[in-house]
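User: Hey, my collaborator sent me this sequence without any context and asked if I could get a structure. I don't really work with proteins. Can you help?
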Amino acid sequence: MPGTSILGTARRRWGEDVVKAVLFLAAALSVLTTLGILASLLEGTVDFFAEVGVWEYLTGTEWAPLFADPSYGVVPLVTGTLLITALALIVAVPLGLGAAVYLSEYASPRVRKTLKPVLEVLAGIPTIVFGYFALTFFTPTILRDLLSVDVQVFNALSAGVVMGFMVVPTIASISEDAMSAVPASLREGAFGLGASKLQVVTRVVFPAALSGIVAAVVLGVSRAIGETMIVLVAAGQVPNLTVDVRESVETMTTFIAATGKGDVPTGSIGYKTIFAVGTTLFALTLLMNAISIRFVRRYRQVYE
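Assistant: No problem. I've predicted the 3D structure and written it out in structure-token form, which is a compact way to encode the shape of the chain:
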């Protein structure tokens, strides 16, 4: 009946409006949470820079904020963070993309349903476990005994490699989803033109899924930059401006965690360094996300 049809349409529109409102609130909550985090960081950061110059902070090569003769150069923390992140990516990107290619293009549906959940289990292991694995097994057994690498007890190499294994599921899972979303018609067309399986993967599927793959890698970078427990346990707490992966280094997250749990007077300049380093880490992560968005928009493929 006409009345029933009109009533049903009104109910569907009301239901859609409710869904749109809930989704808007979810998105707004995420934005408000980010703004709240930034606001909480900026208050202490502004106070810190009022006492310590921005130039000294950004260009100084010595970091000793809690010493009697303090130094506030954040460069050693930034280089330590980037060094361990680079090591993690050297491990995670090849393994993650290799796993994604296999699961998406070579594995049978039965094997994929078995291996993908097993791979994603790594993402659920507490990072403190990875940290102690790096400290108590990877460094003494793998690096020293098996590979005969002369490393310190706390070193960047062990922390970076083990962190890479932690990041593998993130890159593999998102990249595999991006590759699986590529229409089968593209593969069939390439096979019809005589392309081999490897050619289809490297010249058709991989370029078509590039936006998702780039997003996966950048997400892995962001997670590596923000990781705390692995570097806190395995990399040490020595601000060290070096590229020697055998030595101990300190990252920004390590400093925040170690200083935050220490006996630092609230309101002191040492306490405010936590906010300054946190803001620096926030800015670095925001830069990674901006790069990800730019690449995704540039290489996005739309299929109908």
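In plain terms: Residues 7 and 13 are 10 Å apart (CA to CA). You can pass these tokens on to your collaborator as they are.
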